[in-house]
Design brief:
Layout: H1 2-27, E1 37-43, E2 46-50, E3 66-69, E4 72-79, E5 86-88, E6 95-98, E7 103-106, E8 112-115, E9 121-122, E10 128-129, E11 135-137, E12 146-151, E13 156-161, E14 168-173, E15 176-178, E16 186-189, E17 192-194, E18 203-205, E19 214-217, E20 219-221, H2 227-260
Antiparallel strand pairs: 1-4, 2-3, 5-20, 6-19, 7-8, 7-11, 9-10, 12-13, 13-14, 15-18, 16-17
Helix pairs in contact: 1-2
């Protein structure tokens, strides 16, 4: 009965972390480029009460065994990198990736991070930056005399420069990154993800080449969270939590019964 309490408590802790993950998914249902997470669990060690293959008095090997498990543990929170919903903005600096890949941004400490959030802006120095002010990598600076900006499917950034002939000028080329194991990337907040040993080294390519997705200007990729699915998962986790709680209550009642026994 004491074992049952510990086992059920591990189940309650696991479902609490499951609910925390679902809550974070729902909180980011409108976050640009957000990728939902799901939890993965494993059972804990088993106590071998009677090993399998034990030989009885007649020399026969018994086919059965007795094993008592000790609960469950959380082993992973994996990102789902399926394409999110698409919205049209008409802003040429709003970019989305159709397919695999990440935009690269350079942080203040000169490190490179990766994002699916393509809601770029122009700062006071006319650099293309994220909403948090991090510069797009490779860096792109928009000329002061630029009248119109466009980004092609293969990531070429062009502007129409003011003048008599209104000529078109290329000012940059987007370079996207993909990873051997994108699920191994570390989420650091701010719609950014960082490289880890589990993700592998980034593979840099021009949009549309060698498995990298193409870019679409004037569109944004929103969150891939499906609220109905998350609500169903939340109800399932809640029920599992309640059942584990009920197990603890029943084990406690059994212990009370034992304590009331008279010699």
């Amino acid at each position: 009965m004491i074992r049952a309490m510990g086992t059920a408590a591990s189940g309650m802790k696991a479902q609490q972390m499951n609910i925390d993950t679902i809550a974070n998914n729902l909180a980011n249902v409108n976050t640009t480029g957000f990728k939902k997470s799901h939890t993965e669990f494993q059972d804990l060690l088993y106590e071998k009460v009677m090993p399998g293959g034990q030989v009885d008095a007649e020399g026969r090997a018994l086919p059965n065994r007795i094993e008592i498990g000790h609960g469950v543990k959380l082993v992973a929170t994996n990102k789902n990198f399926s394409q999110g919903t698409v919205i049209s903005t008409g802003n040429p600096l709003d970019l989305m990736i159709e397919g695999d890949g990440f935009f690269q941004v350079r942080l203040a400490d000169d490190t490179i991070k990766y994002t699916r959030d393509g809601s770029f802006k122009m700062d006071a120095d006319r650099n293309v930056v994220t909403s948090s002010g991090y510069r797009l990598e490779p860096a792109v600076q928009i000329p002061e005399d630029a009248l119109e900006l466009s980004v092609s499917r293969d990531g070429i950034i062009s502007v129409i420069v003011q003048g008599d002939d209104s000529r078109v000028q290329e000012i940059g080329q987007l370079e996207l990154a993909r990873f051997p194991n994108a699920a191994g990337l570390m989420a650091r907040g701010g719609n950014l993800m960082g490289e880890t040993p589990a993700s592998g080294r980034p593979i840099l390519e021009t949009p549309g080449l060698d498995g990298i997705g193409e870019t679409a200007s004037g569109f944004l990729e929103m969150s891939n969270v499906e609220t109905v699915d998350e609500l169903v998962n939340m109800i399932s986790a809640q029920r599992a939590y309640e059942l584990n709680s009920k197990t603890i209550t029943m084990a406690d009642e059994m212990l009370q019964t034992v304590n009331r026994l008279k010699r």
